[in-house]
C-alpha cells in the first residue's frame, strides 16, 4: 500500500546561518527554513511523539508526516496562533500545529476506523485514517494566516500564503476587519501547500475517509463525523493545556492575552490587597529568591478580582486555576513538577505555621527598584510527600506557638476552605469547558440537581436586616467599579446580591440572553440561572466563605438562601421556587433551572425582549402566556 511513497524525495535543505538580526530594519523578521524552525528541543520532542504514534518506519514517516509538517513550518514561520487567546506568542502557530497533531493521533489510537467496518477493512485502512487525522488536525487553523494576518515584505509588497513560503524578511499585524471563523472556510485555499498530489491520490481511494476529510478542509466539522470530533477534541486539549510556558513568555504576551491578565491581576493584588511579611498571619512572604503566596487565598482573590473586571473564563476550581498559572509559566514547580509547595513559615518573633504555598519569581511582579524588603524570618520547605498531608490540609499544624486562646483563626485557616492539594501532573487537567457549563447551570452537575431538590416549598417572607451603609446599589449609568481593598469589607446579603446583579447588568459586566449568560429575559421578566448566578457572586466575594461555613453551607448556597428570603421571585402553583426552561439551539437542546423575578424592574431599567431560545416548561398548555399576563 505504501509502495507509492518509496521513491526518494529531496531532503529539506539545512538553513544557512542567518546574518545577525541587527542587520534587519526594525520590526522585520527573517524567514527560517523548516530545519531551523523545527530544531528546538521541544519541537523535536513533539515530532518524536508523533512518530511514536504511527506504525511506520522512519523512511515512511518522512514521506507521510515529516514532509507535510516541514511545509507547514515554512508556511507559518513565527506567526502566533491567535492575537490574544491561545499560543499568542511568536511561533505559537507552529507549536499549536505540532501539539494538536500529537493529541489527535493519541485520540485516534482509541478508535477503530472506519466505524462499523469489518476488522479486515479496518486493518487495511488503518494507515490512511491515521494520516487523515493528522492532516485534518494540522490544517484546522492554517486559514488564519490567509484571512487574519496582514503580512508585508521588506520590499513593501504584500505576501499571501498561496504564494508559497516566505523568502524575504517580513512583518505582520492582525487585520482589524477580520471575521471570526472565516479561517475555517479559508483552509481550502492552502491545503495543497501541505498535501501533494501523491498524498491526495492515496487518500481519495478510501471512500469512507475521503468525504469526512473534504468536509474538514471546507470547515464543516459538523458533517465530518468522527474525524471532525477528533480534531475538535485535540484542539481543545492543546488550547487548554498549552504546554511548556515560562515567565518570559507570560511577560511578553499582549495585554489582553489570558496570561497577561493573570499577571496583571497578581500585580494588582500584591500592590493593593495582599499583606506580605507580617509578623504573624500573612497572605505571603518575600524571601531573597522567591515570593511565597498562600495558595487558596491568592486563588480566591485573583478569581474575584478578574471577575470584578468583567474577565470571564476563569475556572471555578482552584486546582484548575493553579494549573492555568503553572501552564503559563507564572509558578515555579516543585521538584516533582507540582504547583503547590508545603512549607513552614517562622518569624523572628517566634510565630510559626505550616502552609500550602505557591512559589513565584519576584522579577515577575516587581521591577528591580520596586522590590520590597525581604521577610525577616524563614520559609522552610517540607520535602515530605504532599499526599501525607492531604488529611491535615484542612487544619494546618502549628509547629510552635499556637493561636492565642479565644482568637478566631483567619478565614484561610482550617475548616472546609482549606488549601486544596494539587493533583499530580500525570492526571488529566480538569475540563475547563465542563467547569464553565456547570457554573452556568447548563451541565448535569450535582449542584444543579441539589439546588432543585433541596429548595423548600415554603419560605419565610421576612427580609433580613438592612445592609450596612457600605452596600449601595449603583445606578445603571455607573461604570463597573474596579476591585479595591474596601470591597473585602462589604457584608454579603440578599440586598447586596441584588444590587451587585443590577450593577453588573447595567455596566455590561454581566451579559444577558447569551449562551453563557447567567441572566435571561423569559416571560417578560428576569430569569436567574441557578446555581450559576449565586456561584458567580460567591466567587467575586471570597469573604462569603467564612460566613457560610458558620452555617455549614457552601458560599453559593448561603447567597441563594438570602436571595430567597427577599421573596422577590415567583413560585410555581405547586409552591416550588425553581422554574425549568427548555433551551432550543440549532443542533442541541437542554434545560436550565432558575428563578423568575416578580418585578423585572428590580434589575432592568427597560425590560429587554424575551430570549427566543428559552421557554418555560410546564405541563399546562398556555402556561407561559398566563405568566406574562400576571
Automatic annotation (TrEMBL):
One of its GO terms (molecular function) is DNA binding. Residues 493-615 form the Putative conjugal transfer nickase/helicase TraI C-terminal domain. Keywords: DNA-binding. It holds the Pfam family TraI_2. Residues 445-460 have a biased composition (Polar residues). InterPro entries: ICE_relaxase_PFGI-1, TraI_2_C, Unchr_helicase_relaxase_TraI, WH-like_DNA-bd_sf, WH_DNA-bd_sf. It comes from the Bacteria. Residues 1-28, 387-418, 444-490 are annotated as: Disordered. Residues 27-340 form the Uncharacterised domain. Residues 1-10 have a biased composition (Basic residues). Residues 391-400, 471-490 have a biased composition (Low complexity). This is DNA-binding domain-containing protein. It comes from Pseudomonas lactis. The lineage of its organism: Bacteria, Pseudomonadati, Pseudomonadota, Gammaproteobacteria, Pseudomonadales.
